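Dissemination and training. As part of the outreach component of the grant, students in the summer workshop were shown how a complex can be specified as a set of sequence lines and then modelled as a single object. The example used during the hands-on session is reproduced here so that future cohorts can follow it. Participants entered these lines:
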Amino acid sequence: GENVEQHPSTLSVQEGDSAVIKCTYSDSASNYFPWYKQELGKRPQLIIDIRSNVGEKKDQRIAVTLNKTAKHFSLHITETQPEDSAVYFCAASEGDSGAGSYQLTFGKGTKLSVIP
Amino acid sequence: EPEVTQTPSHQVTQMGQEVILRCVPISNHLYFYWYRQILGQKVEFLVSFYNNEISEKSEIFDDQFSVERPDGSNFTLKIRSTKLEDSAMYFCASRRDFSSYNEQFFGPGTRLTVL
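and obtained this result:
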């Protein structure tokens, strides 16, 4: 089955700096890679996702890059703000193939702290 | 915006008791999931459900677990005889379809505490 590794487990940055979180996956059939933000005691919420036919996707201060050959994908947050402080999870699934249940395999999470 | 809802928000039970966790997925969604998150750990897949049957389950989802869609709106997870290690946050998620839009929407979770 799929295995997703995520680094670092904790990350502290000064407000205004950039934060980068990296994930690797094992199953070459995975082609959908979402990132979820989870605030303390709350549900995971999708912040950005990328499909395997795209190398990069950006949404305001958040961007995700994907290297299918190396099976790496990364989350980049620029101009970090205190409200970005949360746990971020990467995930992978085999989406859009027309078969299967497309369950998500999550990484272990990165606790991001943005210091004002 | 429609959301996945779950009840109860917190369930405390004695070891060996049965619990039923309830979810109401988003109304036009076709795929339903249960995940669990042990405190401080990652979210783990338990089971997926499509067209009134289980489509995939993980090794965690043993004979103590079952899922059901008893009517057109609810989706339930039953744990027959709870163990201490079942203590976790249980998230329900739903997904519209398999064609081109893959986002899974998560509910707020049910915190299960087994004493």
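The mean pLDDT of chain A is 92. Students were then asked to discuss how this feature might be tested experimentally.
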